[in-house]
Design brief:
Elements (H helix, E strand, L loop, with lengths): L1 E3 L2 H11 L26 E14 L2 E5 L5 E5 L5 E5 L7 E2 L10 E9 L7 E10 H9 L10 H12 L6 E10 L9 H15 L4 E7 L7 H21 L12 E2 L12 H7 L1 E9 L6
Parallel strand pairs: 4-8, 5-8, 10-11
Antiparallel strand pairs: 1-9, 2-3, 2-7, 3-4, 5-6, 7-8, 9-12, 10-12
Helix pairs in contact: 1-2
């Protein structure tokens, strides 16, 4: 168990947790078909690409697939961007600013020119899940970036969302797990209750619990595992440590995103198999 301070990462999580549900759940519309686009008289279907956005540069994005391959895809005004999930699985139209680093996407493409001459791929439709979008919003420095402009773009986004960050992070406690497991050790249980006791002394304190995994296993497995780990910690805090549910912010699972250490060593993987318990106090009452 370690007590660490990782304020910037938690702030991004708080930003993501404030995203409200779309009001379009009662206005589901029929999905339009892909636009028929012809460039210089040549248009042909390209591959469907499933992967994660790992870089953005204006109208181009890099997709990294599960096998580690990278593909550059162009996005234009005709590209349809859709997100699905939530109540009734309603599909909602999104703008290009929703294409965040770390976002798993499915991209239908076409060739802008002769495919035999390495023509550029253009996205005709990009789809992703609401839950993946929320997760991508929480990722802090967790993606491979190859475009220099992204540094400034990330800082602008951080400044833009600064007014949503209404909490001060007072402390962060981390408990760790064996590979693929969710069980808490006796030492971890004792430290969780100690953390709850210390936070209880602060009248306005809230807890935010976030689960993580190492890079072992599939993305779906790790997402579920990170959520189970967060749930196990929350249950123990509430049932055994006496922490009140109304003083708990909505938990989340981050899977292997935002690693605490490189995943290429056993020691690094052990550090990444963790749950972070963040003690927060609203800025409006901090110090009162």
């Amino acid at each position: 168990m370690r007590v660490v301070s990782r304020t910037s990462g938690v702030r991004f999580l708080l930003v993501a947790l404030t995203v409200s549900a779309s009001g379009a759940v009662f206005a589901q519309q029929q999905e339009p078909s892909d636009n028929s686009i012809v460039v210089n008289g040549v248009k042909s279907a390209g591959p469907e690409i499933k992967g994660v956005i790992t870089a953005r540069n204006n109208d181009r994005m890099k997709i990294t697939t599960a096998d580690g391959g990278n593909t550059i895809v162009a996005v234009n005004d005709a590209t349809q961007i859709r997100t699905s999930g939530g109540l009734f699985s309603v599909h909602s139209k999104m703008g290009q600013d929703a294409l965040l680093n770390g976002l798993p996407v499915t991209v239908k493409t076409w060739h802008a020119g002769d495919p035999q001459s390495s023509a550029e791929l253009v996205a005709s439709r990009i789809t992703f899940r609401n839950s993946d979008f929320r997760t991508a919003s929480m990722i802090r420095n967790g993606t491979s970036q190859r475009f220099e402009e992204q540094t400034a773009a990330t800082e602008n986004l951080r400044n833009h969302l600064g007014d949503i960050d209404k909490y001060n992070v007072k402390a962060t406690t981390e408990v760790h797990f064996d590979t693929g497991k969710t069980e808490l050790s006796a030492q971890d249980k004792a430290q969780l209750c100690a953390t709850a006791s210390q936070a209880q002394a602060q009248e306005n304190a809230l807890l935010l619990v976030v689960g993580y995994t190492d890079a072992t296993g599939s993305d779906d497995f790790n997402q579920t595992l990170s959520e189970k780990r967060a749930g196990r910690v929350i249950n123990y805090l509430q049932q055994q440590c006496g922490w009140k549910p109304y003083r708990m912010l909505t938990p989340t699972g981050m899977a292997k995103a935002d690693p605490a250490a490189p995943n290429d060593t056993p020691e690094g993987k052990a550090m990444n198999r963790r749950v972070a318990v963040n003690v927060l106090v609203s800025k409006s009452v901090d110090g009162l």
